[in-house]
Amino acid sequence: MVRETRQTGPEQTPAPHRQPEENILVVEDDTSVATVLQTRLESFGYRICGVVSSGAAAIDAAFRHHPDLVLMDILLEGEMNGIEAAHEISSRSDVPIIFLSCLGERDVIDSAIRTNPYGYMVKPYDNNELRSAIEIALVRHRASREQERLVQQLEKALLEVKKLSGLLPICASCKKIRDGQDHWHQIEEYISDRSEVDFTHGLCPQCLREYYPQLFNGEEERSD
Question: Bigger pLDDT: 11 or 98?
Fold first, then answer.
């Protein structure tokens, strides 16, 4: 019996798995649920920076680990629930929070919404829903931070423009201008960097006579 041999070409190297980049804090009082959730998140490629079961522990972990996202249950151990913990975290941090809860009552959801969460998922949920919710929250948060950065740049630019309308410390000899960091700049450079002004250079009549008097010799003789 002759066995056919196929040429498959060079051996293919498996594509590397996506390196995890984001840290997620899990807040869940049910140990078995927390274990399953952690396994799911790790299969998505995320790092778990902490798993806690109470509101107080969630607040402590949020400011100790600085996660990129928090998955927050509502019914937790201790006196503080997840909504209260989320409110405390959000008052001092912009970390995105997604609620994962078995509570679907309208009043509970309304209370959670007041903490400005990035999502609210009612248990049970499937893997695709969870993964999509996390990805959307992270993208929204990055976009929000980028918008904030651009606004800060604009405010800084406007502040620099306003500075041009105030007093400018200028050298009486070389005419350089001093900025807020005690650095000296040519006046053209200083103004161009802080406005939309462009400069063209030439000589006024007075300087032209001073530096190029030969151009005016004939004129002076005619006047005599």
Answer: 98
